[in-house]
Amino acid sequence: MPASRASVVVLRAAAGPTVLVGIVAIALGAWQQGGAGALGAAIGLVVVVVFFSVGQYGLGVILDRNPDMALSAALVLYLVKIGVLFGFIAAFKDTTVFDPKVFGLTVLACTLVWTAAEVWAMGKTKMLVIEPGSGPGRPGGGAGPTDGGTS
Prior knowledge:
Blueprint: H1 3-33, H2 35-65, H3 70-91, H4 100-125
């Protein structure tokens, strides 16, 4: 399965449970803090879904084009997401438009659910890390004896 296809499968598997938890958070936010709580939870849900979706899709595209860059790309995507989230939190830390506590708790809950669903989906996708037939002694594989003896 190509990495971009696996990324779409993982994205769909992780988005569903995350949206359900976000809807529950919106209801709880509305119940506890009114409209500001509901808006904080809704913004938190949108932030998590957008951040993780863009990251997962971008990583899938990079894996299809250059699998050797996977770790570097994942780290860069992670740092960019953290930086943007930090900027978002700094810009809205004193807002009265939405409840920052409900926002933060929703981001935390949705992130945990997304991560757990992503791990589960990656285990079910069975994406190959090493291409079959690319080992030592194979065409296009590494050089050297395959029987452990000397040549």
